[in-house]
What we know:
Blueprint: E1 2-4, E2 27-29, E3 40-44, E4 49-52, E5 58-64, E6 73-81, E7 87-90, E8 100-106, E9 119-120, E10 155-158, E11 189-191, E12 198-205, E13 209-217, E14 222-230, E15 233-240, E16 247-255, E17 258-267
Parallel strand pairs: 1-2, 10-15
Antiparallel strand pairs: 3-4, 4-7, 5-6, 5-8, 8-9, 11-12, 12-15, 13-14, 13-16, 16-17
Amino acid sequence: MRIDGPATVQNRILSNTICAFDSEGIELVNGGNQNNSAPVIDGATSGTVSGSGEAGCAIELFRAEPRIGRGGSLKFAGAGMADGAGHWSITPVGLNAGDFLCALATDSLNNTSGFSNNFIVGFVSTATSSPTQTPTLTPSPVWTPTPTGTLPPACTATSTGTPFPTASPTASVTDSRTPGPGYTGDGVKAFPNPAHDSMTFVLKLERADEVTVTIYNLSGERIADLKTSNGPGTARLVWDCSRTAPGVYLACVKVGGTEKIKLKVARVK
Length: 269
């Protein structure tokens, strides 16, 4: 759908299914719909979707076509309003971890934007001894250690793609264990998630301990092992996923040999 020219304005596109196209689903050119900017999805779980855009715009969410970039709208998933600073948060309907999600914005003059970039709905899991943590999944640059400062060095592991022969055929995404004294219970954050080339895992330790992150595919095959000794303070481990097939993976985090948390992560092309 192309909206072309400065006289072509106030076109509101509401709760429509627009999909199976080869280019832009909604294309604003030459001032059409006043070039209203598409919103940006900053984080998404099955319970909350948040993002930013133009202040005062109406935001609509859609389950999107499974593609990287700007996908089409398959099914309406919720709506809300951006506040005076452009921030918005919406409780979606019918979304599951691993679904693709996109958004539209419509200003007060009924100018509807193009589709946002797709975002993969994430997954949240925390240890039972701490409050539920909802990480903000933002497409931020890869963390790089420097020779100065107080940040601990990162440990980078490269995936070999070889299945681990003794891996369990199934993987659970719940954890009822109580964290040991070396783990603060602040949760583990993985960013960016989904990732293209690499993903950084971050957690806090109240004393020095060994941290390992093991990556499995959803068939239970071991894909990569990350390990570092840190603490007390913030531990960071970097997964080089550039040669890993796109898809959803399970990251199991251990502190001092004791499993603390599991979370789903995704690698995209």
